[in-house]
Write a structure and sequence with these properties.
Pfam families: NIF (PF03031). This protein is an alpha/beta fold. It is built from eight helices and ten strands. The protein has two domains: 67 residues, no CATH class; 177 residues, 3-Layer(aba) Sandwich (Rossmann fold), CATH 3.40.50.1000. The longest helix is centred in the first third of the chain and has 13 residues.
């Protein structure tokens, strides 16, 4: 793979990353043509430089305003992340569903059997992102949308994840979509804090391939194996009967605890 392809793969990882980004890579791509201007004060310049040197990478990410360092929300918002539940979803369980390596896999490398090709602008240049759908994702989303209030929650940037979702979700299964800025940046990871959704936690489930994403609420999680390109994979198909059982319960914890115990 040539250096250009390697760089593109690094950037795509940052667009769709579920864990905290390596700040050096992000800034080398996003800011390589930018001049970082710092206000120098004659009286306080030495103190400012010492303060800058003491900053950690996490602090830099929090203060940077570049496209790849969208500051995650670190405090509870005044309003819930989700709008008021729709009347036809009243009483339904809310299922939060991840995107990358759960429903799809994306790459800058050309793929002959790509289901979608998404143009994404990076650093002023439009790149083609090749997206593969996980086997059985169509029937999975269709059935899930019939049973639950489904919410797409991804640590990816919306400029990539939104057009992918437009093409992926033919049935309107996702009532809402949440992106990186809705995550909490915690110990190097983008965490999906379910308590901020505005839904009763005993009626919220998260389906995600990354345990770090649900570290705040592991008891609400249905883990799923990461998917890249195995076209014989049946994980989503196998999950449908399990979710059909879950759709009929008032409290999700008994079944999830039983499922966790049986798998351990």
């Amino acid at each position: 793979m040539n250096s250009s392809a390697v760089e593109e793969e690094c950037v795509l990882n940052e667009i769709s990353k579920e864990t905290g980004p390596p700040i050096g890579i992000i800034h080398s791509v996003e800011e390589r043509d930018m001049v970082v201007k710092k206000t120098e004060d004659n009286n306080d310049s030495e103190q400012s430089r010492e303060s800058d040197e003491d900053q950690s990478d996490d602090e830099s990410c929090e203060t940077c305003e570049c496209d790849y360092c969208i500051t995650p929300t670190e405090e509870l918002p005044g309003e819930p992340l989700l709008p008021q539940i729709e009347s036809n979803d009243e009483g339904k369980i809310c299922v939060v569903i991840d995107l990358d390596e759960t429903l799809v896999h994306s790459s800058f490398k050309p793929v002959n059997n790509a289901d979608f090709i998404i143009p994404v602008e990076i650093d002023g240049t439009v790149h083609q992102v090749y997206v593969l759908k996980r086997p059985h994702v169509d029937e999975f989303l269709k059935r899930m949308g019939e049973m639950f209030e489904c919410v797409l929650f991804t640590a990816s940037l919306s400029k990539y994840a939104d057009p992918v979702s437009d093409l992926l979700d033919k049935w309107g299964a996702f009532r809402s979509r949440l992106f990186r800025e809705a995550c909490v940046f915690h110990k190097g990871n983008y965490v999906k804090d379910l308590s901020r959704l505005g839904r009763d936690l005993n009626k919220v489930i998260i389906l995600d391939n990354s345990p770090a994403s649900y570290i705040f609420h592991p008891e609400n999680a249905v883990p799923v194996a990461s998917w890249f390109n195995d076209m014989s994979d049946t994980e989503l198909l196998d999950l449908i009967p399990f979710f059909e059982r879950l759709s009929k319960v008032d409290d999700i914890y008994d079944i999830l605890r039983h499922q966790s115990t049986s798998q351990s």
